[in-house]
Amino acid sequence: MQATIKWVDGVMFVGETGSGHAVVIDGPPDHGGRNMGVRPMELLLLGVGSCSSFDVVQILQKGRNNVTGCVAEVTAERVDAIPSVFSKIHLHFSVSGKGLKASAVERAVKLSAEKYCSASIMLSKAVEITHDFEVIEV
């Protein structure tokens, strides 16, 4: 894997992935930015949330569960020091479908957290990461 980060102006950058996708990264005005892109630490949260969501959906689909939606809400706390690293990250999954069993969703979330989600497992070496879920019948 590879990525290229190009400085645009102030604290704005454009990141381009090896697969050809781009994202604008910027800071708030009080840090010299124009608030025109995501913050670098927000990208980490998006990464862990999307990596885990990818796993949860795939595990449920492979188990022939009728999944119609999955929303991961990721919340984090940072230490009040420099560097302002994450101290806690929590992922809450709202998984919707027809006839979904809570036990199947619980299994998928657990497998993602403990076996498959590279981002979550890597970050868990330094950050307390917790998970929970709810099942929404449609």
TrEMBL record:
Name recorded for this polypeptide: OsmC family protein
NCBIfam families from the UniProt entry: PRK10738.1 (NF008009)
Lineage: Bacteria, Pseudomonadati, Pseudomonadota, Gammaproteobacteria, Methylococcales
